[in-house]
Amino acid sequence: MKPALTKLAAMAGALALSAAAVAQDYDIAINNGRVIDPETGLDAVRHVGIRGDVIVTISGTPLEGARTIDATGRIVAPGFIDLHGHGQDTPAGRMQALDGVTTTLELESGVLPVADFYARAAEEGRPINYGAAASWAHARIAAVMDVEPDADTYWFFRYIGDPRWQTELADDQRLSAILRHINTGLEEGGLGIGILLGYAPGISRAEYHAVNALAAARDVPTFTHARFLSAIEPQSSYEGFQEMVAVAASTGAHMHISHLNSISLSDIDRIAEMIEGAQANGVNITVEAYPYGAGATGIGAAMFRGENWRERMGGIEYSDFTVQGVPLDEERFHDLQENAPGTGIVVHFLNPDERPEHQAYLDRSILFPGGAIASDGGPWSVGSERLSGDIWPIPEDAHSHPRSAGTYGRFLRIYARERGVIDWPEAVAKASFYPARILSDAVPQMRRKGRLQPGMDADIVVFDPETVADRATFERPAQASVGFEYVIVNGTVLVDGGELDTSVLPGRPVRGTVASGAE
Question: What pTM was computed for the model?
Answer without folding.
Answer: 0.94
